[in-house]
Specification:
mainly alpha
C-alpha cells in the first residue's frame, strides 16, 4: 500500500472521532494536497471527510467538490454536495434541479441548500413548492420550513 492509501485508511478509521478531518480543516493550507488525494480514494469514509474539509479552502475546492457529485457512495456524494453549496456556485440552479430528481431523499433535501443560495427568485419558489410536496416526509418538512 502506498502513502496515499495508508493515509486514506487512517482517515477512514478515524471517521467516528474525526480527528484527522478536524486537523485538516484547522490546517487546510498545509493539508490541501493530502485532502485532494484523499478525495480521490476508494474509501467513502475518507472521501466524505475530504469533501467537507475541502470546502474550508474556498473556491479552490470547487472542481474537487463538483467531482463529488458523481461519487458512487450516496453519503459521500451528499456530503460533497453540501460542501459545494457552501461555495455558492454560479450554476446552483442547475445543480438544484439535478439533485431534486435524485432517487435518494437526502440528496433531494440537499437541493434546498442550492436553492437557498439563489436568493429570492421564481425558481426558488417553484423548487421549494416542488420539494414541499415530495413523497418523503423528511424532505417535505425541510422545504416547508423555508416557504
Amino acid at each position: 500500500m502506498d502513502q496515499i492509501g495508508i493515509l486514506c485508511k487512517c482517515w477512514a478509521i478515524s471517521e467516528e472521532s474525526e480527528e484527522l478531518f478536524d486537523c485538516a480543516k484547522e490546517n487546510i493550507e498545509e493539508c490541501w494536497p493530502a485532502v485532494e488525494a484523499i478525495a480521490k480514494c476508494e474509501l467513502p469514509a475518507a472521501c466524505w471527510q475530504a469533501y467537507v474539509a475541502a470546502a474550508t479552502v474556498g473556491s479552490r475546492a470547487e472542481a474537487l467538490l463538483r467531482a463529488a457529485l458523481d461519487d458512487l457512495d450516496i453519503y459521500a456524494r451528499r456530503r460533497g454536495a453540501l460542501s459545494l453549496a457552501v461555495l455558492e456556485p454560479k450554476d446552483s440552479k442547475e445543480i438544484a434541479s439535478l439533485l431534486m430528481s435524485q432517487e435518494d431523499r437526502y440528496l433531494r433535501q440537499v437541493a434546498i441548500e442550492f436553492v437557498l443560495v439563489l436568493g429570492d427568485n421564481p425558481f426558488q419558489e417553484k423548487a421549494l413548492k416542488k420539494l414541499s410536496s415530495d413523497a418523503e416526509p423528511y424532505v417535505r418538512e425541510a422545504a416547508r420550513r423555508l416557504l
